[in-house]
Design goal:
With 351 residues, the protein is of the alpha/beta class. Helices cover 36% and strands 13% of the residues. The structure holds zinc ion (ZN). Zinc ion binds next to loops.
Amino acid sequence: MKVVHSPAHLGHNPQEEIAESGAHSPHEHTGRGEIIRETLAADPAMEMLSPREWGIDPILEVHERGLHDFLMNAWARYQRDVRSAREVVPDFFYRPAMREAMGSLGEPSHVNAQLGWWCFETTTPITQGSYMAARGSVDVAMTAASLVLGGERFAYGNCRPPGHHATRDLYGGYCFFNNAAIIAHHVASTTGVKVTVLDPDYHHGNGTQQIFYERDDVQYVSLHADPVRAYPYVTGFSDERGSGKGLGANANFPLARGTGDAEFLDVLKRAIEEIDRFKPELLVVSLGVDTFDGDPICDLRLTRQGFFDCGALVAGLGLPTVVLQEGGYALAELGNNVRAWLRGLEGLSAA
Ligand SMILES: [Zn+2]
């Protein structure tokens, strides 16, 4: 399988994230991208490739120009207008209720207020190289998609930072640009084929759902921890089925705490039935392996063998498939878990 990787991800290098009322060493860090690269590069079944540069046009097809332009300049503006800071994090969130009965106000002009205009939470610091890393992650995704459009059956993009929490005009949840949505839109809009995004990450991909919620050319199907107990809390419920012409093209499968391999595979079979009914011609997988038993921030119980079995089950769809990296925070097993999923997809042995 062709594996696309870019060293650009090293530019997004936070040393702190603010979560659970404190500053901690980040769960989403450069070591994640590196352990996946090292593990896959050591497997003779994987062929490592560098991405080509795609520029910003594919990003602007999916995201507000204002979000892109803000991310491009935010770190430097913050250094100039607020203070010198290694990690730039919002501490003010403009909510419309602040101006209730006063008329709406557009985007504030101060960089500190703009942080909370374009971001919805505090765990996604902007460092000096974050913007270019996010651009590189999109290049990785687009290159993997182009390989599959060019005839490869499968391709994997080692995307970092991840993407599925980024909405049309918000970043957050470790995500800046929505890599999976960008390639799903690119394929659907340039080739006219229907595309499904299957998202088995522990967390609901609120951004991908939001971007395609009213569309009938891209289906979104997600398995994730029930939002009643898990981030992102406000999306991912099973009654969210799409709206307008997109009604029926969105399917959520919330999971109970402690869900293990057998139960997860049963639900994945139901998700695959949804995909079969939609009849896509290309599949994008938002591959999060934070469903792993040993993941430090999650509460499902999948094993490496379970990931292999998931990949094999998805292969049964018989679709050209682009797999992009999302979450996964158990560093020691991260590379092996991703590798197991990909080997299952490609029909190789589990070893
Ligand atoms: Zn996740």
